[in-house]
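User: Sequence recovery, please. Input:
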């Protein structure tokens, strides 16, 4: 909330990741189906032996195709079942809430990799309700858009811009990042970045200086600064500035008294 806080603990950590692949599987447009499958198979190249991965598809409802496993072959088998979709609905908000609820008791590095358009057609939850669930959860969300590939060719409209904004906000408030690949060659770099962020993180903690138990959302901002409080400058061996970006949760809900 704009007030500096005293950090009580800080550490650099590395650990395996737990990822739920949430895949849009709809017959609304076969081009999207192809992109969803292509992007999902590509992620297998970044799965390591100690990682846990689950596969959930969604259209009108959600289907668990593979519960969490460390077996890459079982993940591939689950993806192989995605061939003929039955419905045209893409109930993304309900699917995200379902995946978050399934992962709430999992400890450690956990994330939802949502391969989707960002368009919701028929969910019981509205966007605001979904955003509140994402804010309150400790599961990071990484949307990978299958819509951007098409908008590059046919242009944006109100629906595509709304979808893009929705994915960006959900990722931001969960502590993740939304990706909008325009070309297939971008995918390896995207998945490498996601896996690096999940496996290698900085953990920090603080006790709020104003510990109000009001049940409200409190905004957080993480900055890198030097001893004088100025933005930190990082340089390489040749003295060239290195660009960096802080990825963190945007806040938290305090408990109610």
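Assistant: Recovered sequence (257 residues):
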């Amino acid at each position: 909330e704009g007030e500096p806080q005293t950090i009580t603990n800080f550490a650099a950590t590395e650990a395996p990741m737990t990822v739920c692949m949430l895949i849009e599987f709809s017959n609304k447009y076969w081009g999207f189906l192809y992109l969803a499958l292509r992007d999902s198979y590509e992620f297998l190249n970044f799965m390591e032996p100690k990682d846990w991965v689950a596969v959930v598809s969604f259209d009108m409802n959600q289907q668990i195709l593979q519960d969490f496993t460390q077996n890459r072959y079982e993940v591939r088998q689950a993806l192989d079942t995605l061939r003929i979709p039955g419905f045209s609905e893409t109930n993304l908000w309900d699917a995200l809430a379902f995946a978050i609820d399934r992962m709430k008791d999992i400890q450690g590095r956990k994330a939802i990799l949502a391969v989707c358009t960002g368009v919701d057609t028929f969910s019981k939850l509205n966007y605001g309700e979904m955003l509140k669930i994402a804010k309150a959860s400790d599961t990071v969300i990484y949307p990978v858009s299958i819509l951007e590939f098409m908008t590059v060719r046919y242009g944006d409209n109100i629906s595509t811009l709304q979808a893009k904004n929705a994915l960006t906000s959900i990722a931001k408030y969960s502590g993740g990042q939304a990706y909008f690949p325009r070309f297939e060659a971008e995918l390896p770099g995207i998945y490498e970045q996601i896996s690096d962020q999940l496996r290698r993180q900085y953990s920090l903690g603080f006790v709020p200086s104003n510990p109000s138990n009001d049940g409200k959302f409190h905004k957080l901002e993480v900055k890198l600064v030097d001893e004088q409080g100025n933005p930190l400058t990082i340089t390489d061996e040749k003295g060239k500035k290195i660009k960096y970006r802080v990825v963190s949760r945007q806040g938290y809900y305090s408990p109610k008294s």
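The chain has seven helices and nine strands.
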